[in-house]
Amino acid sequence: MTASHNQDKSQLQASAAPASNRRRSFWIWLIACLIVVGIGAAFVPSWISGKMMGKAKVAGTEEVESAKTGQRLKVILEISDLDPTSGTFAGKQVVRDGRDHYLRTKQRIWGHWSESTHLEMGARSDVKVGAVVHVTGTLRDDSALEITQIVILTGYITVEDQALGGPR
């Protein structure tokens, strides 16, 4: 082999090295992007459900019992009585007992809602006996909530009766 042939061969190898580096950089970039998308897919659903439930803490039975007129409350309840003509409903309060475990309590909640009440994750037709709802409202003089927001939770959470001797 001649010197010029060896020189041509080394120039060819030198020009192939940057292309190989570009390909390697592309694959590293692609894998990094896929990792970021995977992490986002793992955490976004829980972030969204947290936003739906609101940042304020859902009131427990003690907070509901000690609430004062004019106080804003967020509660979860299972509707047991509904009068669509007067815009009232009542039900038993539901409390969270663990990550995905909800218990029906003996605490009874009354609420008034209207056409101006904001609904999320559902329609007005979803507000019915047996529905599980997260409501936000202000406590009135008659101990009922004036509801400003309803989030339909039916189908998203499972409610069970409390065991004997458990919390209310």
Q: What series of H and E elements makes up the topology?
A: HHEEEEEEE
Radius of gyration: 29 Å
If you average the pLDDT, what whole number results?
79
Principal-axis shape equals elongated
CATH topology of the largest domain: OB fold (Dihydrolipoamide Acetyltransferase, E2P)
Report how far the terminal alpha carbons are from each other.
93 Å
Strand content: 25-35%
Read across the widest sheet, the strand sequence of neighbours is: 1-2-3-6-5
> In the CATH hierarchy, what is the class of the largest domain?
Mainly Beta
| SS content category | alpha/beta
For the record, the CATH architecture of the largest domain stands as Beta Barrel
Low-confidence stretches: 164-168
SS field, number of helical segments:
2
CATH homology superfamily name of the largest domain: Copper binding periplasmic protein CusF
Total domains: 2
Give the % helix.
25-40%
